[in-house]
C-alpha cells in the first residue's frame, strides 16, 4: 500500500524528464483513490513540494485535498495556496492531467466566490486559462474566468482573452456561457461590435431546444444591435415580445414614444437587469438622429439640431455633438459665436500607409480564414461519421425513389 | 441681366405676358356644364358624388344644385331606389317640387315588374327553342333591364352569361364593353382589367373607337391601382376620335386631365416631351382643358410657380372628380417633388431664398421639403442652413468603394468564423447523439 511519504518521494524523484513524468502519471492515477481518502491530512505535505518543479504531483495532491467540503477558514488558506500554484505551475506538466487541473480551478473559483473576493481570482485564473488552452480551443475555464472578471468588474482583463479566435468547442454549454459572459464584458467595454458578434453566436447556435442562456443573450442582442446599428431586423423572432416591441418602437424614430414605452415597462427591464442597456438605447437614438442630419446639412444651428432631435436646449445639443465628435462618430466643427455646427465629410482618404497596411492585413486575415474553411470542408467530407450519416440518408432516399415502381408491377 | 435675375425669371412667369386665364379654374365648378359632359348613370353618380363632397365641405349651395340636377336626371330614368335616396338626401330643402313622388315610383315599379315577367317569359321560350342568338339577346335585355333599375351586380351576371352564346367577335366585344361599363360603375377594376384583355384577344381587328374606349377603361383601372405611369400611357394612347362617344364613362376632358396629371407625376423629362407635349393625338385632348395644357408646358419650361399655381387652382375641382379625388394629393406631391428635383438638378449651388420664391413657399418650409428628398436620396445635395444655400454633393466613388470593401471584408470574416463555430457545434451534437 501507499503512504503519503512514499508518494511525495516518488514525486520528488520523477519530475525532471518527460519519460519520468509519464511514469509518475501512472503511479498517481493508481494512487488517486488513496489520496482522496487521505484528503484531510495532505496539507502539510504540500510544503515539501515545489509548485514549479513538481507541478504534476502538486496538482494531484492539491486536487485531492480540495475535493471535500471546505470551510471559510480553510478557504482562506487554500485560495492563497492555489493562486500561488496557478501562477507558478508549468504548463507542460499540468496538461498531462487537464481534468484534475480544471477541477482545482473550479474549486478555486467557488472558494473565491465564497470569500466574496472575486478580484483575487482574476489573475490566477487568467494564468490558468493561458496555461491550459491550446490555440483556437475553448476550455471549460474560459467561461469561469469571464464570470469572475464580470463579478470583479475587471472588464479589460477579460477582454484580452476574447480577442483570440475560438473554433473548437468541447461542451456547447461552455461555449454559450463564454459568448454570453464575453458579450457582457464587451458591453462593459463599449465594444459593441464584438459584443454583437459574440451574442449572435449564442443566438444562432444550433440547439435542439432553447435554453435560458440563449434567451438572455437574445434580449441583450436586440438591445446591442439597436445601440450599434440603430435597427434590429432578423428572422429570429423569439418569445421576447417585450424586446421586439422595443425595436419596433425604436424604428419609428420618435424619442417621446420610445421613452413612454420604456417607462411603462420599466420594471420588466429592471428585473432582466437590462435597464442600463435600455437607457443606452435611448441615448443612441439621439446620436442616430444627429448622424442623419449630417447627411442632409452642411451647416445647422444648434437650436435647429435641438428642435429636430427633440432635445430641450441648444446647450444640450452642443454637448451631444461635442461628445460625438470626440468619439469619432461624426465629423463636424462647432462655431460657438453664432451657435452653428458645420458638418464635414469623412477626412479618411484611403491614401495613407497605415490604411494600406490595414487593408493588407485584412486581406491576409481573410485568406487564412478562407484556407481554414477549405481545410474544414475537406475534413468533414472525409469524416467517417459524416459519410455514414449522409450515406444512410441517401440510401433511404433512393429506396423511396425506387419503391413505387415495383409496387405497381405487383398489382 | 444679372445671373440671379435670370434664375428668378426662370421661376417667375412674366406678368406682362398675359396668358389667357382658364375659364373655370379658381372659380366654382359649373355643375351644369360639367354634368352636360356625361350621359347615363355616370352622370347621376358623379352628381351625387359632388353633392357628397360638398356636403362634407359645407358648401350647401353647390350640394343642392347637384342634388337638384340628379333628381331631374333620375326622373328621366327608371331607377326608383336611387330616386328614394336622392329624395332622402334633399330632405325637402328644395321645396315641394323636389319631394317624394310616390305615384311615379309606383308606376315605374309596376312597369318594371311587368317588364321583368315579359323578359323572363321570352327568355324561357328562347331557351326551350335553343336559339343561341335569341338567348344571348334575352340575357342582354335582362342585363339592360337590371342596369336601368340599378341592380348592378345582377346586370353584371346577366351580361357575363351572354358569353356562352356569343357567336361573332362583335358579340364578344359587346359583352365585354357592357361588363366593363358595369364594373367601372361598381368600382371593381379587377373585372375591368380582365374584360379588357378578353376584348383585346378577339380574332377580328377592333375598330379604332373601341380601342380608344378600352384604353380609357384600362387607364382608369391603372389609376385605381395607383399605377400612374401605366395609367398615363393608356390615356395618352386614346385617339382623339373618341370624342363624346364614351360619355357614359368618361369625357374627353377627363382623358386630358387624368392623362396629363399622371404623366406629369410619373414621366421623366424625355418621355414628357415625346409622349405628351409632342403628341399630336393628345394635343387635341389638351386643347379641351387649356389649364392642364398650360401647366404641363409650364412644368416643362420650368415655370414652376405658375405651374403650381395652376395646380392649386385646379385642386378644388379635381377633388370633386369621382375617379381622381383619391389620387389628387399623391399626384400633387409627386409633381411637386419632381419639380423640386428638376429645379436643383443643373446647379452646383442654389440660393434657397430664390428657390423658395420660385416655389411660392417659405425658406423654412422649403428646407423641410428638401431635407425629406435628400434623406430619400432623391436629391444628392446638402443644405447650408446658415447661409441658406443648397450645395450639390457628388459621391466620391473611390472612398465609397474602399469603405464598402472593408465592410464586406469584415462581414465575411465574421460570418465565416460564426459558420465554422456552428459547424463544430453540430458535429459535437451529432457525436453526442451517437454515443447515447
Short description:
Chain A has 411 residues and is mostly helical. Chain A has helices spanning 4-13, 18-37, 43-46, 55-66, 72-88, 91-94, 98-114, 119-132, 141-152, 155-162, 172-188, 192-204, 212-229, 241-252, 255-264, 266-271, 275-296, 302-309, 314-326, 353-382, 384-410; strands spanning 137-138, 168-169, 297-301, 332-335, 340-343.
Describe the 3D structure.
Chain A: InterPro entries: COP9_N, CSN3, PCI_dom, WH_DNA-bd_sf. Chain A has three domains: 1-132; 171-287; 297-368, Arc Repressor Mutant, subunit A. Helix content of chain A is 72%, strand content 4%. Chain A has 21 helices and five strands. In chain A, helix 9 (141-152) packs antiparallel against helix 10, helix 13 runs parallel beside helix 17 and helix 15 (255-264) runs antiparallel to helix 17. The longest helix of chain A has 30 residues, at 353-382. Chain B is mostly helical and 436 residues long. Among the domains of chain B are: 21-100; 349-392, no CATH class; 404-436. In chain B, 70% of the residues lie in helices and 3% in strands. Chain B is built from 21 helices and three strands. In chain B, strands 1-3-2 form a three-stranded antiparallel β-sheet. In chain B, helix 13 (252-266) crosses helix 18, helix 15 crosses helix 16 and helix 17 runs antiparallel to helix 18 (328-344). The N and C termini of chain B lie far apart (92 Å). Mean pLDDT of chain B is 83; it is low at 1-26. At the A-B interface, strand 2, helix 12, helix 17, strand 3 and strand 5 of A face helix 20, strand 2 and helix 21 of B. Strand 3 of chain A pairs parallel with strand 2 (381-384) of chain B, so a sheet runs across the interface.
Amino acid at each position: 500500500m501507499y503512504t503519503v511519504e512514499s508518494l511525495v518521494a516518488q514525486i520528488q524523484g520523477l519530475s525532471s524528464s518527460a519519460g519520468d513524468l509519464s511514469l509518475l502519471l501512472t503511479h498517481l492515477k493508481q494512487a488517486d483513490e488513496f489520496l482522496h481518502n487521505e484528503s484531510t491530512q495532505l496539507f502539510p505535505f504540500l510544503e515539501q513540494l515545489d509548485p514549479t518543479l513538481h507541478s504534476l504531483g502538486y496538482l494531484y495532491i492539491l486536487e485531492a485535498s480540495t475535493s471535500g467540503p471546505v470551510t471559510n477558514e480553510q478557504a482562506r488558506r487554500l485560495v492563497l495556496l492555489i493562486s500561488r500554484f496557478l501562477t507558478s505551475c508549468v504548463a507542460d506538466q499540468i496538461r498531462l492531467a487537464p481534468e484534475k487541473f480544471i477541477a482545482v480551478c473550479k474549486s478555486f473559483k467557488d472558494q473565491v466566490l465564497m470569500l466574496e473576493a472575486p478580484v483575487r481570482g482574476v489573475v490566477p485564473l487568467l494564468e490558468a486559462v493561458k496555461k491550459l488552452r491550446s490555440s483556437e480551443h475553448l476550455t471549460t475555464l474560459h467561461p469561469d474566468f469571464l464570470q469572475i472578471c464580470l463579478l470583479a468588474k475587471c472588464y479589460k482583463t477579460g477582454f484580452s482573452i476574447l480577442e483570440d479566435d475560438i473554433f473548437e468547442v468541447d461542451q456547447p454549454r461552455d461555449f454559450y456561457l463564454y459568448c454570453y459572459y464575453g458579450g457582457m464584458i464587451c458591453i462593459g467595454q463599449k465594444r459593441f461590435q464584438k459584443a454583437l458578434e459574440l451574442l449572435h453566436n449564442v443566438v444562432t447556435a444550433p440547439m435542439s431546444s432553447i435554453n435560458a442562456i440563449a434567451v438572455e443573450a437574445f434580449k441583450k442582442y436586440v438591445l446591442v444591435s439597436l445601440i450599434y446599428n440603430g435597427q434590429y431586423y432578423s428572422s429570429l423572432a423569439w418569445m421576447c415580445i417585450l424586446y421586439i416591441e422595443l425595436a419596433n418602437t425604436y424604428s419609428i424614430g420618435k424619442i417621446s414614444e420610445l421613452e413612454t414605452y420604456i417607462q411603462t415597462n420599466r420594471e420588466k427591464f429592471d428585473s432582466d437587469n437590462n435597464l442600463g442597456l435600455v437607457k443606452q438605447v435611448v441615448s443612441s437614438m439621439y446620436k442616430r438622429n444627429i448622424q442623419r442630419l449630417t447627411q442632409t446639412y452642411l451647416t445647422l444651428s444648434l437650436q435647429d439640431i435641438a428642435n429636430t432631435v427633440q432635445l430641450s436646449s441648444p446647450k444640450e445639443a452642443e454637448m451631444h455633438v461635442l461628445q460625438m465628435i470626440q468619439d469619432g462618430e461624426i465629423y463636424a466643427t462647432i462655431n460657438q459665436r453664432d451657435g452653428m455646427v458645420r458638418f464635414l465629410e469623412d477626412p479618411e482618404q484611403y491614401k495613407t500607409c497605415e490604411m494600406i497596411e490595414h487593408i493588407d492585413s485584412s486581406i491576409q486575415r481573410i485568406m487564412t480564414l478562407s484556407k481554414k474553411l477549405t481545410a474544414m470542408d475537406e475534413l468533414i467530407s472525409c469524416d467517417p461519421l459524416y459519410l455514414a450519416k449522409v450515406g444512410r440518408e441517401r440510401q433511404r432516399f433512393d429506396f423511396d425513389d425506387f419503391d413505387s415502381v415495383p409496387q405497381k408491377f405487383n398489382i | 441681366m444679372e445671373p440671379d435675375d435670370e434664375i428668378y425669371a426662370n421661376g417667375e412667369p412674366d406678368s406682362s405676358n398675359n396668358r389667357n386665364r382658364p375659364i373655370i379654374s379658381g372659380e366654382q365648378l359649373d355643375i351644369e356644364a360639367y354634368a352636360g359632359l356625361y350621359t347615363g348613370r355616370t352622370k347621376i353618380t358623379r352628381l351625387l358624388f359632388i353633392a357628397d363632397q360638398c356636403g362634407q365641405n359645407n358648401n350647401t349651395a353647390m350640394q343642392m344644385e347637384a342634388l337638384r340636377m340628379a333628381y331631374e336626371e333620375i326622373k328621366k330614368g327608371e331607377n326608383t331606389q336611387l330616386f328614394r335616396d336622392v329624395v332622402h338626401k334633399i330632405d325637402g330643402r328644395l321645396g315641394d317640387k323636389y319631394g317624394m313622388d310616390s305615384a311615379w315610383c309606383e308606376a315605374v315599379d309596376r312597369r318594371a315588374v311587368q317588364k321583368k315577367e315579359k323578359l323572363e317569359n321570352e327568355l324561357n321560350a328562347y331557351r326551350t327553342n335553343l336559339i343561341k342568338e335569341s338567348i344571348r339577346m334575352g340575357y342582354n335585355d335582362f342585363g339592360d333591364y337590371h342596369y336601368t333599375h340599378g341592380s348592378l351586380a345582377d346586370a353584371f351576371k346577366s351580361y357575363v352569361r351572354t358569353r356562352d352564346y356569343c357567336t361573332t367577335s362583335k358579340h364578344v366585344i359587346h359583352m365585354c364593353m357592357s361588363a366593363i361599363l358595369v364594373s367601372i360603375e361598381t368600382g371593381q377594376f379587377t373585372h375591368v382589367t380582365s374584360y379588357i384583355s378578353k376584348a383585346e384577344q378577339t380574332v377580328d381587328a377592333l375598330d379604332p373607337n373601341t380601342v380608344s374606349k378600352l384604353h380609357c377603361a384600362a387607364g382608369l383601372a391603372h389609376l385605381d391601382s395607383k399605377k400612374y405611369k401605366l395609367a398615363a400611357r393608356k390615356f395618352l394612347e386614346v385617339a382623339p376620335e373618341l370624342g363624346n362617344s364614351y360619355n357614359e364613362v368618361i369625357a374627353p376632358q377627363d382623358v386630358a386631365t387624368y392623362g396629363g396629371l399622371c404623366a406629369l407625376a410619373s414621366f421623366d423629362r424625355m418621355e414628357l416631351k415625346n409622349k405628351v407635349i409632342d403628341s399630336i393625338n393628345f394635343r387635341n385632348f389638351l386643347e379641351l382643358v387649356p389649364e392642364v395644357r398650360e401647366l404641363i408646358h409650364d412644368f416643362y419650361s420650368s415655370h414652376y410657380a405658375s405651374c403650381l399655381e395652376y395646380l392649386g387652382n385646379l385642386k378644388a375641382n379635381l377633388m370633386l372628380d369621382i375617379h381622381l379625388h383619391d389620387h389628387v394629393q399623391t399626384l400633387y406631391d409627386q409633381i411637386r417633388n419632381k419639380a423640386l428635383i428638376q429645379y436643383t438638378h443643373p446647379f452646383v449651388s442654389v440660393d434657397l431664398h430664390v428657390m423658395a420664391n420660385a416655389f411660392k413657399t417659405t425658406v423654412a418650409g422649403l428646407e423641410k421639403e428638401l431635407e425629406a428628398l435628400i434623406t430619400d436620396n432623391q436629391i444628392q445635395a446638402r443644405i447650408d442652413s446658415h447661409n441658406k444655400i443648397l450645395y450639390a454633393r457628388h459621391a466620391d466613388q473611390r472612398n465609397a468603394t474602399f469603405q464598402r470593401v472593408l465592410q464586406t471584408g469584415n462581414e465575411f470574416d465574421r460570418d465565416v468564423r460564426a459558420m465554422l463555430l456552428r459547424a463544430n457545434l453540430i458535429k459535437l451534437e451529432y457525436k453526442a447523439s451517437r454515443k447515447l
